[in-house]
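Cont'd.
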Amino acid sequence: MVSPFVRHRGRAVTLPRRDVDTDQIIPKQFLKGIERTGFAPALFHDWRYRPDGSPDPGFELNGPSAQGATILITGPNFGCGSSREHAVWALAQYGFRAIIAPSFADIFTSNCYRNGLLPVRLASPDVDALIRSNEGGLHDIVVDLEQQVVTDDRGFSARFTADPYGRELLLRGLDEIGRTLLELPSIEAYERSHA
Amino acid sequence: MTSRTLFDRVWDTHVVRELADGVALLYVDLHLVHEVTSPQAFGGLRRAGRSVRRPERTLATVDHNVPTGDRSLPIADAVAATQVDALGTNAREFGIELFDLTSPGQGIVHVIGPELGATQPGMLIVCGDSHTATHGAFGAFALGIGTSEVEHVLATQCLVLSKPRNLEVRIDGTRAPGVSAKDLILAFIGKIGTAGAAGHVIEYTGEAIRALSMEERMTVCNMSIEAGARAGLIAPDDVTFAYLNGRPRAPSGEAWPTAVERWRGLRSDPRARYDTRVTLDASSVGPQVTWGTTPGMVADIASRIPDPASLPTEDQRQAARRALEYMGLEAGTPLAGIPIDRVFLGSCTNARIEDLRAAASVVRGRRVAPRVRAMVVPGSQRVKAQAEQEGLDRVFREAGFEWRNAGCSMCLGMNADVLGPGERCAATSNRNFEGRQGRGGRTHLMSPIMAAAAAIEGQLVDVREW
């Protein structure tokens, strides 16, 4: 069961890199658990912390204005590589509700929709404009899934198109398995005809 | 009926119900499970009081975090041991067949599926692992999924998916000596980029693809995800059928000719429409080596590291500068001659028997360079046994390679097989991401014969000059 996502208002942090892979979002040494919780401290581990374990002040998420941010603005092909859903768990548990980028990897997108994290795909010039508008990171951005629009109070506005199925899952906070089990007669009919 | 691609055909036969325009509930023929991406899925089933709908269509193995050293000892990493034990418990409780650490059938999930003949043409195959596209080499639609979807498939034997678009990658021409399947797929990723095939399923076609063995086709399909594709597949042919014939889980007896007859229909219509087409001339491809931190940052071994300033967009220039800094390399440096510390022969991309034979042919009678630590990690225990029967283990050991047990090992470094900070590795795996093989480790991807030659020389080397 995911928590519903209809509209979110929050501050954003910018991570201006392309091809951020899921190995960076959550390195492999944190994948050995058997629970879905406890991943927030490991988010972006090798970028966030120096080898001695202290926070790296040069990393975007460690800046003072990034504290409390709930929206991540980043480059194209975000979430590429490994299918590890732990990457989405880490982002969500850290406090992110939406990620805005020119493009996302396919498996990562599926994982987001199943964990209450909204991937917002905007055209590159719109992402650049939003980054400029967000400079300083001290004002709010609004991501509206119902209307499929991103706005801020400085006049930025851009529409996006969410995956229709993923949008339905998020808007209604659906239990996907429960929903599919309602299709059981169709599944049984398929199995009979393909036995 | 309108003309259809191979992928359209496989998709259509798995639609249980159209849920919305382009979105379908699909039936899964084979669900492969491993220890890292499944525990939370089984936990979800247990909490909801649900069972596994089709345990007989589900196959589990341990591969990602398992040690590759002495298997008579307990797993030293307590957290990893807990995860391995959890899969054992889950398999027993939910009635799923498991190839555990004591099993002669244990191995990397994408190596054992084909090895058993469980992977078959026309199937829909899923696994909580992005390299599931490997099975596409048989003309199956095989894709990686997340843990929530793993739970969904366990509970319903179905997956909800928006239909990806069709991309034809046509590779014609003849490969030159020293050029392997790995070089074809790396050259293609270099051409199209790491997101170039996003939202698509690739069908690999052309004479250079038809000329590949089954194991080489698996290498090609395996790295489809590195171009961003949802999956990659190749139409089955006599090469496919010859590989499958006699495998333990392949159809046998009277069922065999019936199956082959059905599988022969698995091809794209001559007038089938692809959304996108890309071509590559195999004869123009040389041995490839990555120089950066994505598989798309790749070049011919005979070339120099490109200047980031020459790249078309600012984000690409920034990414390349960052990659070179991480890799400790400078633009303009010839790739051949870069010294290496480690060699990893393994992974679901290149650890099947043909890969080991090819690497052994380069290594035979030679010695690993003095400062280099090199290891061979067979893709499965059966591959290992076969290699030992052929004496390949002796060839590697006598040259100074470590000869290990099967697993994913240093492809992702979840077990003890990792690079130290700054160590440079010639690897036959599929990802050269920052820290992938160990924090601060520097990975160069290449073919098995290129990695074997690098081990002997202690530096990246053009295997064609051997």
